[in-house]
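FORM 7B: Structural annotation worksheet

SECTION A. Query
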Amino acid sequence: MDRMAQIRNQKSEFFVFYFLAFIFLIAGCEEQQKVKPAGGKAQALSQKETKDANSPRKLAAEIKQLKKQLEGLMGINKQARIEAISTITSIDVTGRSNLYDKNDDKKKEMLIVYLRPIDDMGDCIKAAGAAEVQLWNLNAEPNEALLKSWEIEPEELKKTWSGSLLTSYYKLQFDVSDILTGKEKDLTLKVQFTDYLTGKVLKAQKVINSR
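SECTION B. Predicted structure
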C-alpha cells in the first residue's frame, strides 16, 4: 500500500511539473507577443533581447533543465529529502545582547540584539523568517511596562546576518534614546521569531541592565 502511495505521489509531481512547464511556455509566448515595434536603435535592441529571452529554443532548454531536476528529486526518497533539511527548533538571544553607549556620552542609547536560530542538530543556521523584538520594564505600571516593540520583515532581517570566528547571528540594532531615562533598573528583552520554512513561532527572553 505504501508503494502504491509513493507511485501516486511521483505521478502527481510529474504532472505538476508538466503543467507548470506548459504555463511557463504559454506565458513566455504571450510576453513575446506584447512587445510592440518601436523606433530607435535602443528600442530595437530591447525588443531583440526580449525576443531572445522568450524564444522557443531558450524556453525548451529551461524546461529540459527543470525536467532533469524533477527526475533527480523523484529518484530520492521523499522522506529522506525531508529528513535531510535542517529545521529550526529554538532561538538564542546571546549574552552580548544589551544596551550600549555608542557615542561615549555616558548614556546608553542603542539596543543591540544578537539572535541565533538553532537547528535540530544544535547548530546556528541562517533561517529565513520574521522577527519581533520587545523591550519591557516590568517594574513599571502594567500599562507602561512595554517600552517599545519592533518588527523586522524577512527581506530586512536577512541583511543583518553577521558573525565572528566562533558563531553567527542576526545582529539587530535599535535606537532607544527617546524611550529610556537612564533611571530604569533591569529591563526585559523579549524576542519572537517566525520561521518561514516550517511556520514555527519561537520565543526567547533575556534580562538586561540599563545602567
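SECTION C. Observations
The chain is about 35% helix and 30% strand. The CA atoms of residues 7 and 82 lie 18 Å apart.

SECTION D. Sign-off
Analyst initials: ____
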